[in-house]
Amino acid sequence: MPVAGAVVFFVAPPPISIPVYGSIAGTSLFVYWKIAKALMLPPVMGREGMIGRVAEVVTDVDSEGSEGMVRFDGALWQAVSEEKLPKGEEVRIIGLDGMKLLVERVHSLARFSVLPPPDHP
């Protein structure tokens, strides 16, 4: 983008080229800043990337040890919970037991919290 701005700066008269070049330079700096910020974030994958995230119950999860199914990031997972969770409920992933997700109900106000999810072992 700065190359296009440089062309405008040298071709157009100064009353036009300076604001155009300034806006192109400002936009470029903003984009570069966002890219640099994203590159500095640590990668979150695997178990660490799942814990604290929200999933949707696809088949009822019973509190008596029977498993239900939840959808997380487009994939179906077996899930267990200490409470009964009906289909359509939003749940938070609190841990993994092999290939099963340990989930808990997302309370209506917790969904809008600005605080990070609590750490679970």
How would you sum up this structure, described in words?
The chain is of the alpha+beta class. The chain has 2 domains: 39 residues, no CATH class; 67 residues, OB fold (Dihydrolipoamide Acetyltransferase, E2P), CATH 2.40.50. The protein contains 3 helices and 5 strands; from the N terminus they run H-H-H-E-E-E-E-E. It has a 5-stranded mixed barrel with strand order 1-2-3-5-4. A hairpin with an 8-residue loop joins strand 1 and strand 2. Helix 1 packs antiparallel against helix 2. The mean pLDDT is 82.
Q: Termini separation (Å)? A: 47 Å
Spatial extent as radius of gyration = 24 Å
Count the E strands: 5
Q: From the coordinates shown, what is the CATH architecture of the largest domain?
A: Beta Barrel
Secondary-structure class: alpha+beta
> Could you tell me the mean pLDDT?
82
Low-confidence stretches: none
Helix percent reads: 25-40%
Q: State the CATH topology of the largest domain.
A: OB fold (Dihydrolipoamide Acetyltransferase, E2P)
Query: What best-fitting shape do the alpha-carbon axes yield?
Result: rod-shaped
